[in-house]
Amino acid sequence: MSHPILTLCVISFDGYECPKWVRSLLEKGLGGVALFKRNILDFSQVQSLARSIRDGPKSFPPPIIAIDEEGGKVQRLKKIFPVDESARDVGKKGKDACFAQGQRIGRFMRELGLNTNFAPVLD
Question: Considering the entire predicted model, what is its pTM?
């Protein structure tokens, strides 16, 4: 049985694989999952994790698979995709630099199977 409020929730968990209790909530309509450093081992592991989250439930819309990848001090993907400049530093360079940085991060996230970035400071 699903609950409408569940679709508004994004949760996190510990580990490199999606736990059964999270898969159960996804099947009931959970809005999505936020990943953190504790969920990141390497490129193929993140792809596999994202696939297991995305392909588990057959819901519409598909679940959010989010991360907070701002660059600078806030880098959840640092092990596999370092972004040394902070959003503030890139912002000082102008809108073209901001667009390029966002596009670079977005393309990498898409390769991983992630579909939402809580950055810069969206959360």
Answer: 0.85
